[in-house]
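Can you give me the bound-state structure? Components:
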Amino acid sequence: MKLKEIADILEIELNTDKDVDIKAMNTLLEAKEDEITFFNNKKYLDKLQTTKAGAVILQEEFVKYLPQNTVALITSHPYLKMAQLTKYFVKDYTNLPKPTISDSAKIGKNVVIHNGSKIADNVVIMDNSVIMHNVTIQEGSIIYPNVTIYPDTQIGKNVIIHAGNVIGGDGFGYAHTSQGEHVKIYHLGAVVLEDDVEIGANSSIDRGAFGKTLIKKGAKIDNLVQIGHNCEIGEYCIIVSQVGLAGSSKLGRNVVMGGQAATAGHLEIAPFTQIAARGGVTKTIKESGVYAGFPLIPHKLWLKLQAKILGLVK
Amino acid sequence: MKLKEIADILEIELNTDKDVDIKAMNTLLEAKEDEITFFNNKKYLDKLQTTKAGAVILQEEFVKYLPQNTVALITSHPYLKMAQLTKYFVKDYTNLPKPTISDSAKIGKNVVIHNGSKIADNVVIMDNSVIMHNVTIQEGSIIYPNVTIYPDTQIGKNVIIHAGNVIGGDGFGYAHTSQGEHVKIYHLGAVVLEDDVEIGANSSIDRGAFGKTLIKKGAKIDNLVQIGHNCEIGEYCIIVSQVGLAGSSKLGRNVVMGGQAATAGHLEIAPFTQIAARGGVTKTIKESGVYAGFPLIPHKLWLKLQAKILGLVK
Amino acid sequence: MKLKEIADILEIELNTDKDVDIKAMNTLLEAKEDEITFFNNKKYLDKLQTTKAGAVILQEEFVKYLPQNTVALITSHPYLKMAQLTKYFVKDYTNLPKPTISDSAKIGKNVVIHNGSKIADNVVIMDNSVIMHNVTIQEGSIIYPNVTIYPDTQIGKNVIIHAGNVIGGDGFGYAHTSQGEHVKIYHLGAVVLEDDVEIGANSSIDRGAFGKTLIKKGAKIDNLVQIGHNCEIGEYCIIVSQVGLAGSSKLGRNVVMGGQAATAGHLEIAPFTQIAARGGVTKTIKESGVYAGFPLIPHKLWLKLQAKILGLVK
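Here's the bound-state model for the whole set.
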């Protein structure tokens, strides 16, 4: 899409004649010369100054920080404009090649596999599951019945996805107008499940807004777990039932999260950290350890605290 | 069904010869002359006195409050009798006309659409979804794969329902016998989703017991959310993942509920109120504001309180 | 499988010539002469001493407690070896007879019923549901659309299973290697739902590791509930939405668990106990009563405590 077209859609005046062809939307950090991004949070000013994006949607006062070759699309509501634009970058899946399915794959009844998808050797897809466009499933993976895999999902080897899962749905992201209405951010990224991942029944893993939601090798996820867009789950993590991970949570390897635990978004958890059941993680955890409670504190302190609290009435 | 028949089913002696034909069950407030209701809670005595119902199941001591033209069905267990009766008022879907489906609608593979349903222009229903009886879906709405829509659900324009959703299941309602057994309340109401509503993956919205569960225009609901029977979600509400709303919760417009927050049933939340993640709402909130905790308190106070609590061990 | 074969798979040296034929894996308590079990927890030493198992995987120091006719498979990692072995005892469903389906059963569209399954009179299985191998469904039960029933599930009479349920998935069980990798415990047990059970939308009930997960007569389970492997839910229990029961929780009859409540695993709850919404049960409850909070305390005390806590900032 020509930059001019974009400017027209967003009702932004373009102060350049550069006729850039924009192929995708992306983050400040990852956008390339033929991609557009947005700037909405001063925290990321350093990323703005070094972005390689072809164009950035931003407020006037930050234009001065832009790299020389990057075009500014100036607006007082960059987040809202970004959201409005996502709709136009949803992929067109209409001209994809027919799916390729290995002869050794076992495909159940009423399974639907859409164009562009690739099903490798010895994959099992059970009855009534739906594999949408451009999905790849590698050797030996098993999809139980009634699973939905959204477009562009990449599934590694020997992955097990139990019944009722929804992998790759849109993240829960909206920009808000001054009238309190919500403008949908169409999610343009994907979900990547590495080898040996297992996911319990009726869980949901959202695709990235831009970029990917990544579940690394050997991570195990229980039933009814929510994993938001752009999360990164480290190797061999254990995520127990009914855990909820808000968008862009990054868990190091072998992190354990007990049942009904949760994270707020945009934070990191150090490798080998254990979060007790119902622990609520609201800040980055730099030091590995065992934590509990909401707000989260070291587990030993939590035990001591509970005793103290109970002492108030005993 | 004749009133006499109803009395026989419930083993209640009828002390009138009025041969009323009862067409439906309904609430005290909404029942009409040809409908039957029940009275089980003194809190609603004013509603009993002004009900327009043709008949009321109630205890003997309250008969004196009944309007003149309303027949009393006297029992010491009105709630249980009401529950037993619901079974007989479940709609008969056997003689409905074939579904009407617009030519411009895109219907996926293995989609089942039952009689009485109407699918409008440009609706998309993806593979393996099931649309039960008497469902209406208006222009431009999108149903992702493996969704189940129960009978009588009404879906507005440009609604998006992600994969794995269950819309319109029976509410979790039972009357209890003296032996501790549970008598199912068959849910006779419906779910209404207004225009521009979006619902994330694997959520569930129960139909009304009588009347409807209503999700108003532009409300956005995340993954794995539970919405009980007869809830009312105001315009542009934001309901984050794993929230649970118990039956008959009424949220004003632009209410935000953070992840894993919840309500007890039969309460109201003022417009523009924000409930922090995990907030537990147990009483009506009259004053708009930001609240947190369980029990729920103003968010600022909650922050102060957490600091104070932590002080107990530091 | 010959004991020798098992020893080879597990790389354990067998110090007997007994050529026992092992037919299944089971628990210390329930294993028979032709079954193998494991010992990993000193708490169960009495069960080791009285086991009827043909063979036990255990550490060397406990061999002296074994009954005379039981063969020892000695390893320093019995839990890990047990996990590795489960894979070899997954049932072979390839030579089962065709399913038997009563003429009076109503089977919807795109329903898949696998070999070995038996569908009784007047059962209703709605569109797009999948009944895997060896499932029995008794008279009058109703399965709503898009449900998945895993192999070996036994469903009683007049059971109602709402849309999107997953019954019988593998429990969330892994043994861990010294490198932090997880070895899957293939779940070899089943789920048993007794008569009159009802299960709300999008819930999940895991099958037993060995033995069964049991939901007793008349128990009612709401939407989005998680029930772990080997749980036992007593007659007429009420399990409200978003409750999570960890593995091997045993609830007596008429236990009520409020919304979002949870249990840790391997504990019991006395009959007629009520757990308030969000109550977190971490220990066995011997005395019936009303409890709340996390950690759990008597409900009255919890109310008093909350008032006291709030007093800290007022």
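A couple of observations. Residues 133 and 151 of chain C are 5 Å apart (CA to CA). The domain at 100-301 of chain C is CATH 2.160.10.10 (UDP N-Acetylglucosamine Acyltransferase; domain 1).
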